[in-house]
Each structure stands twice: as C-alpha cells, then as structure tokens.
Design a protein that fits this description.
This protein is an alpha/beta fold and about 300 residues long. It has two domains: about 90 residues, Winged helix-like DNA-binding domain superfamily/Winged helix DNA-binding domain (Arc Repressor Mutant, subunit A), CATH 1.10.10.10; about 180 residues, Rossmann fold. The chain is built from 13 helices and ten strands. The strands form two sheets. The chain has a seven-stranded mixed β-sheet with strand order 6-5-4-7-8-10-9, with helices on both faces. Helix 10 links the parallel strand 5 and strand 6. The chain starts with a helix and ends with a strand.
Length: about 300
Amino acid sequence: METVNYFKALSDQTRLRILKLLYKRELNVNEIVSILDMGQSRISRHLKILSDSFLISSRKDGLWVFYRACDSNFPGELKKLIDLKLEKEEPFSLDIVRLDKYIKERGEKGKEYFNSIAPDWKNIRAKILGNIDINSEIVKVTGICRCVADLGCGNGELVGQLLVKSEKVIGVDRSPGMLEEAGKYLKSLGREGFDLRLGELAHLPVRDVETDCAVINMVLHYLDDPSAAVEEAGRIIKRGGRMVIADLENHRDESLRINYGHRWLGFSRETILSWISMNGFSFKKSKSFNAANGLNVVIYIAEKI
C-alpha cells in the first residue's frame, strides 16, 4: 500500500511539477507560488499530499516552512527517475527555467540591498551584535597565517584586523558596493597585503588550497544554501588549516528577515557541526556570546583533516 500511495501522489501534474522543483532546491510556499504562478491554497494542498506520502519533507524556520524532496530509499529513487524522465518535457523544463530566473533575480535584489546599505553596514551590525567585538574574538582564534580568506568580507573591518597576523588576506564579497567600502577603509589604514575579490561564497574566486585559514563571519544566515559556502571553504583551505564560523544561534526574531534580509533565523549547533564534519573538518571548540535583543552569537573553530 505504501508504494500505491507514492504513485497516487504522483498522479497529478502539479504535484510532479512541485516535486521536480524541490528536487533542484529547497523552497518555501511563497517561492513555489511565485515560480508556478498558482494560488497559495492550491500549492499548500498539493504540498500536504506530497508530505503525507513522504515524497517531500519540511523544516520550520521561524514563521517560514521550507520543503525539499526526500532522498531516502524508494522516494529518493522515484525522485531521481522523475527528474531524468521529465528533464526536457514541458511544462517541467520551463519550470526549471523559471526557478533559475527567480533565484537569479533574488540574488540581484540581494546585491542591490547590500550595495545600498554598504555605507551604513557598521551601524547595522551594531544593532544586531550589541557590544560584542566579534571581529577581535575571531582574530584571537585564527592564529598566525600566511594567507587567510574572509568570506563575505563586507566593509573590510575584519580584513584590516586579520592583516595584523597574516601576510595576505583575501576578502570575498558578492556586493561591489561592499568591496568599494572595504577598499576605501583599508587604504585609509595604510594597510597592504589585502586582495579584494568579487564573487559568490558558493563559487569562490579562490584556488584550491590557496589559504591556510578561512573565516565566515555573520554571513551564512543571508545565503540560500549555507552548506555550499562551508563546502567551498573546505576546497580552498590546506590540510591542517583552520576554518572559523561565526553566526547567530537559532532564534525566532522575524524582524531580522523583514529589516535586514536574513534568510535563516540562525543555526543550531547540530547543523553547523554537521556541515563541518561533512566537508572534511574536525571540530575543535566553540564559544558563545550574548548579542543584542536576546540573540546569541557562536564562534566555531574547525581544522581541515
């Protein structure tokens, strides 16, 4: 009967379209509604049928619920078969085009947002972090490095501090506005040895094992796929090198989504540790700090195996 339920759930074109989208990317209801241009009640009804049949799973993050296709056992095999068979058929192929367009447009809006707030970035960070000097805490645990990468370097303040203990600091950010602010700031300090690069954290403009250390400082909660940034960090760090992640512990403050563009309401310790382990690192230690408005920031230190 379980197998029959799978096929009953897949006997509707809309549900097949939804499943194919969720095979490609984790999405929430509003995103699926936008991509398929259907009513929310209709999409929610189909999501329930797919969920009840264990073809998709969900996770709650504050007020948002995200869905993804299941990978385990028979549902996972069905999902792969469906993706292969429907790859070039309409409307399924057009849905993937719309998905790609939606993600690209959202990314461009994100760049525009960070470009617009770049001059005020320091004040925005202070509203979230309160009195924590997170940059100084990060510098304490990075150690002395020949080359360190600041992934999502923002206005360059951390780059400036890392240069004290490193011969070279590579700063990567997706926002040209942020990199412009970083360049001005670092030049005002009279610092040398920095290399600012425009790029996505999921596709870093950094060579394999180019760095001894990488820092991901209060960035993961902005990303569609934070695990991809950790995976890329694993690619660029030499064996025995260090990765430092600083981010918010999971919370329920939806205002950070509304006011500051956060996609994730922080992360659990288990989630961060799983990304560390999956990408060739050994977890060493962590330290927690009380931030503003009841939020907590955790710094994780890991070593490349």
